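Researcher: I'd like a candidate sequence for this fold, 250 residues long. If you have to choose between options at a position, lean toward the conservative one.
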């Protein structure tokens, strides 16, 4: 009887240990669209260091990522392109401690191969009648669009009649690259992705730095792994990857 009880206790303990050590599934990282190429490389590098971990990446506009998390998506890590989105996530109790991991800047780009296009060197040029279509991310969900709207408001410019709204910053980049619009608001890191198709016209001055925050989800089933991924992103190795993609240190 005593031997049987000890055996049962040992089996129970072993099962509990196995359950605790077993991975809870892929580490799901939701990241802003502008982080696509950088985070793909980050994931590969992280998995090379931790071959037992699978990193699943989900890219969308920061506002869409917040909506997904708010509706119960099994997100482990949230990385947004602005502080506003993370503020909302924090107010709703959806995330843990947040940390800034990168810095970017907002720019206006124009199609590269359009010799007859008017010169665009500042925000005021976008109001000229020759500029008929300007791609701007939907300010409700796209941080780059929100930054653009604030800059235009500060400059007292109304481009509503010629605005083509996009669902994320990469869509604005694509529109300009295909010549479907005369100009577009994107991040500097996005503009660098298509040097043969778009030209950086000018940088949009912002009142504050554009900082990217990251945080673990409060509902994460991979809390330890989420924290380790964030630490890696902020390490010298993680920051070197971001730098290769044009991001600056916060």
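Model: Candidate sequence:
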């Amino acid at each position: 009887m005593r031997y049987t009880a000890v055996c049962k206790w040992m089996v129970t303990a072993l099962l509990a240990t196995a359950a605790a050590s077993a991975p809870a599934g892929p580490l799901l990282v939701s990241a802003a669209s502008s982080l696509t190429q950088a985070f793909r490389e980050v994931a590969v590098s992280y998995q090379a260091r931790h071959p037992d971990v699978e990193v699943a990446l989900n890219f969308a506009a920061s506002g869409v990522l917040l909506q997904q998390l708010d509706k119960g998506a099994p997100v482990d890590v949230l990385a947004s392109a602005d502080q506003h989105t993370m503020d909302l996530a924090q107010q709703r109790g959806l995330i843990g401690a947040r940390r800034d991991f990168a810095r970017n800047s907002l720019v206006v780009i124009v199609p590269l191969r359009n010799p007859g296009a008017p010169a665009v060197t500042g925000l005021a040029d976008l109001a000229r009648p020759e500029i008929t279509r300007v791609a701007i991310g939907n300010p409700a969900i796209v941080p780059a669009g929100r930054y653009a709207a604030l800059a235009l408001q500060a400059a007292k410019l109304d481009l509503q009649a010629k605005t083509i709204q996009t669902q994320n910053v990469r869509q604005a980049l694509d529109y300009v690259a295909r010549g479907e619009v005369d100009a577009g608001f994107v991040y500097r890191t996005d503009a660098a992705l298509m040097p043969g198709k778009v030209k950086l016209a000018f940088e949009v001055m912002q009142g504050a730095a554009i900082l990217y925050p990251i945080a673990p989800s409060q509902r994460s089933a991979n809390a330890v792994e989420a924290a380790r991924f964030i630490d890696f992103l902020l390490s010298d190795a993680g920051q070197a990857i971001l730098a290769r993609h044009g991001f600056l240190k916060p």
